[in-house]
Amino acid sequence: MNSQAIPSYKEGSKELKEKLSHTLSANAFEVFNSDAERIGKEYTSVLKLKVGDKAPNFKLVNTDDEYVNLYEVLEAKRVVLTFFRGTWCPYCNLILSQYQAVLPEIEKAGATVLAISPQTPDASLETKEKNGLEFEILSDNGNIVSKEFTAIHKNPEESLHKMTELGYDYDCYNCDEKSEIPVPATFIIEQDATISFAKTEGGDYRNRVEPSDIINALNRK
């Protein structure tokens, strides 16, 4: 895959915002965007681990109700670890589908992808099937693992109310009812568990780490 074939999240999100501006009511569109901007201003220092740190081990359930152990995966390959909000978030679906598009390049570089959210395994399976994902989607009940890597915040009440109005039962997606979600962030973990890449675009969840950033970081090794 050459650089021209790597999808651009910036361009994809621009198209997504345009689509949402037509499919959502003006009020709902404004609420979601205002909340995203506010979260972006509140969460500017996000990453809990940086390049050079050792990633802590974890064991989380995948969509088949089987445990995935980070260090066991690292025995065979490097890991691109990404944290996302949930299957109800259109920006999460966009970036995960783009990571799937570059999965062959990721695997060529000797790595795989693990994606983590506070969703139930059933909701994670919905994410996987909806986006045709061939990598693991893991359920982090209570954001126990997520909070070791990135900031956690409560989903704003106005957004939750609008989700309900749109027919989304938010609590049914998650393992608990705290309404807490991770600030999206992506890491590359080497086989010795050292973090070689750590990036977030901040609390504004409409912004995400570009697939090209990941590919370039993997190929620098």
UniProtKB/TrEMBL annotation:
InterPro entries: AhpC/TSA (IPR000866), Peroxiredoxin_BCP/PrxQ (IPR050924), Thioredoxin-like_sf (IPR036249), Thioredoxin_domain (IPR013766)
Enzyme class, UniProt record, top EC level: oxidoreductase
EC number: 1.11.1.24
Thioredoxin domain mapped to chain residues: 49-221
PROSITE patterns to which the protein is assigned, alphabetical: THIOREDOXIN_2
Keyword Disulfide bond in annotation: yes
Top-level taxon of origin: Bacteria
Pfam families in alphabetical order: AhpC-TSA (PF00578)
Catalysed transformations (reactions): a hydroperoxide + [thioredoxin]-dithiol = an alcohol + [thioredoxin]-disulfide + H2O
Entry keyword NAD: no
Keywords noted in UniProt: Antioxidant, Disulfide bond, Oxidoreductase, Peroxidase, Redox-active center
Protein role: Thiol-specific peroxidase that catalyzes the reduction of hydrogen peroxide and organic hydroperoxides to water and alcohols, respectively. Plays a role in cell protection against oxidative stress by detoxifying peroxides and as sensor of hydrogen peroxide-mediated signaling events.
Record family assignment: Belongs to the peroxiredoxin family. BCP/PrxQ subfamily.
Protein name per its UniProtKB record: thioredoxin-dependent peroxiredoxin
